[in-house]
Amino acid sequence: MIIINKENKSTVLEINDLYKEYEGKQVLHNINLSINKGEVVVILGPSGCGKSTLLRCINGLEKIQGGDIKYRNKSLMGNSVNWQEIRQHIGMVFQNYELFPHMTVIENILLGPIKVQKRDREEVLKQAEQLLDRVGLLNRKDDYPRQLSGGQKQRIAIVRALCMNPEIILFDEVTASLDPEMVREVLDVMLGLAKQGMTMVIVTHEMAFAKAVGDKIVFMDGGSIQEISKPDEFFTKPKTERAQHFLDIFQY
Description:
By secondary structure, the chain is an alpha/beta fold. The chain contains nine helices and ten strands.
């Protein structure tokens, strides 16, 4: 697999002055963030600060009321945006897996590439099996989601996203609903993706993982970005008192 040089600073996603409200209540404001090719951006912050909402805005699952989001310098605002096409480039993995229970593992993975991207079944099957082997689940390809553990389901969800060949993957607290012993197997897959140069935006509460995987830490509170730092800087000398208090709670 090709490993992307992270020194390549080409911007693939840019957020400018994003504003989001829900039923008249401000949820996100003054969000400015750029994401470079091959970069891993980790978003941290207390529950309810807008982290997941920001990811959903990037993926077109939430409408925004102000500002702009650009992918490859193309605005994603307006009714003319083809989100089905955009989501082939910006994939997302959710906390609750979103697997179809009536379909086998391999059927869940093949559905998008074949139905949406109109790719050849044999070509997609080969890729899917390679990815399943990579995450240690090739022998479960004919199982149904109900036969899998939470960690296994989440690894399948990641494989499904990868099989669409996206340029960016958004991860929304993908370990939050897992038992502690299942968390590591999912984080290991994500660490592997980071080493191979996948561009990722990760919302997580796993502090050690955030420090290990991130190229950039984005700390949010109250619906806005409070600071953006390198991991070593954020975890040893955060710029704001709010971030320091957040880290103290986690006893990092």
